[in-house]
Amino acid sequence: MSAPIAHGGGITAAAAVFGGRPEDWLDLSTGINPCPVALPEIPARAWHRLPDGHLVDEARRAARDHYGSGEILPLPVPGTQSVIQLLPRLVAAGRLVGVTDERVDVTDNKVAVTDDRIAVTDDRVAVVTPTYGEYARAFTSAGFTVDAVDNIASIGIEHRLAVVVNPNNPDGLAWPAETLIALHDRMKAAGGLLVVDEAFGDTDPALSLASRVPQLSNLIIFRSFGKFFGLAGLRLGFAIARGDILARFEDWLGPWAVSGPALSISGSLLRSDVSAIRSRINERCTGLHAVLKGAGLRMAGGTALFTLVTDARAGDIYMHLCRHHILVRKFEYAPNWLRFGLTPDPAADRWLGEALQRFER
């Protein structure tokens, strides 16, 4: 088992080192909407009973309409982390993961052809990096060889599955839809699968491939619910893929994987007008950028929900902010990077700005 990965959100641990109560810290270490939406009314039966089928059905239909997945009913899951950990089972050694009627060149015994069908036989997966580390960890722990590539052009027929986070975390890199569709077609031709993680897709719906899933049979999309709505504690996400893949995920997750209250909340909020949420997020993003610019920091990328800063003094800035009870995200693999999540209001902008101004340059 590989070592756990450090993620954002470790306020309790930071407070234990730098003092103060966790609730009094400013947590900018995650990419979560800091202005959570008001909770809709939750029927008492959602708390009292095991999740009924109608709650699941309502949540799936609401997700279909919100994400625009057409005939595909997205599967609610207890956070997308739960299905990331199932991906190695989906491409378990020796099992056909995808089929095609097309022929491709067979090189180095990386693919096998049977009855005009092609199946990838090597245990290699590709992850476009740097990105969310749990993908590589899940596959490495399952015995797969993980190729960390910096460009989708490096993904080949030897890869049984490829992962692209779009837009990417932590640098915000976004791949055009047509580029990802071409990658899907290459993967399908060799019997492989493409996973596109759209955890931050709600702030830029035009990037989403959800509407293309009915035509792209070897595509799997993961969507986060909690980041955009500011309700990460629900531990809710959705998987969008062809029916047999969703059926496997559902079987492996087991019964009642998502709570009744989470299903009820998602069914309501996914049908609501989310334009005000996007406006609020964009407003907060503008406020954060003004603070970072005022502090002379270089913004190197990001999304509407977070901004990546590059600075040779990143480690010192991190420690300085912790002493002011502000937590941002640092990266062991990129010591000159810091990721800043959104502040919840102008008062927090001032708190962050004043702390940065006190940093000795």
Question: Uncertain spans, ≥5 residues at pLDDT below 50?
Answer: 93-121
Estimate what percentage of residues fall within beta strands.
Answer: 15-25%
Quickly give the CATH architecture of the largest domain: 3-Layer(aba) Sandwich
Q: How much helix, percentage-wise, in residues? A: 25-40%
Rg to the nearest angstrom? 21 Å
* Oligomer kind: single chain
Name the features.
361 residues, alpha/beta, Aspartate Aminotransferase, domain 1, Aspartate Aminotransferase, domain 2, 2 domains, seven-stranded mixed beta sheet, four-stranded antiparallel beta sheet, 13 helices, 35% helix
Describe this structure in words.
- The chain is of the alpha/beta class and 361 residues long.
- The chain folds into 2 domains: 11-30 and 275-357, Alpha-Beta Complex (Aspartate Aminotransferase, domain 1); 52-269, Aspartate Aminotransferase, domain 2 (3-Layer(aba) Sandwich).
- Helix content is 35%, strand content 18%.
- It contains 13 helices and 15 strands.
- It has helices at 11-18, 44-48, 53-67, 80-84, 87-90, 134-141, 177-189, 226-229, 243-253, 260-269, 275-294, 314-323, 346-357, and strands at residues 26-27, 75-77, 111-114, 117-120, 124-128, 145-149, 159-165, 193-197, 219-224, 237-240, 298-303, 306-310, 326-327, 329-330, 337-341.
- The strands form 4 sheets. A 7-stranded mixed beta sheet has the order 2-10-9-8-7-5-6.
- Helix 11 runs parallel beside helix 13 (346-357).
- The longest helix is centred in the last third of the chain and has 20 residues, at 275-294.
